[in-house]
Design goal:
alpha+beta; 2 domains; three-stranded antiparallel β-sheet; 41% helix; 27% strand; binds zinc ion
Length: 95
C-alpha cells in the first residue's frame, strides 16, 4: 500500500511534475489490455454492399502515451504484450 508520506508528496507536486510521474509509472506498468472480437470489412462486393464482413477477428485495445491503440491479434485470441506491440509498430513505420 502507498503510505501517507508518499501520498503527501504526490499531493504537493505541480501538474507538470504529476505528468512526469505519470510517464514514469507508465513505463513501469504495462497498460491494461481489452480484447475485442469484430469482423473485418474488406473491399469485396459483399462488404461494400454492407455485408457482415469476414471473421470475427480479435483486436487488442489499450492506451499508450495518452492515445488508444488498436492491435490486430488474429483469428485465435492470444495474450499480447502491449509494450512489445508498440515497439513492433514503431519499427514497421521506420522501414
Ligand atoms: Zn469482404
Amino acid at each position: 500500500m502507498l503510505d501517507n508520506i508518499l501520498l503527501n508528496k504526490i499531493n504537493q507536486l505541480s501538474s507538470t511534475q504529476l505528468k512526469e510521474l505519470q510517464n514514469y509509472i507508465g513505463k513501469k506498468i504495462p497498460p491494461a489490455v481489452v480484447y475485442y472480437q469484430k469482423p473485418i470489412r474488406c473491399g469485396c462486393k459483399k462488404c461494400k454492399e454492407g455485408g457482415k464482413g469476414h471473421g470475427n477477428y480479435w483486436y487488442a485495445y489499450f492506451s499508450y502515451k495518452g492515445k488508444t491503440q488498436c492491435v490486430y491479434v488474429g483469428k485465435e485470441k492470444r495474450e499480447i504484450d502491449p509494450l512489445k506491440e508498440m515497439k513492433k509498430k514503431k519499427s514497421n513505420i521506420r522501414r
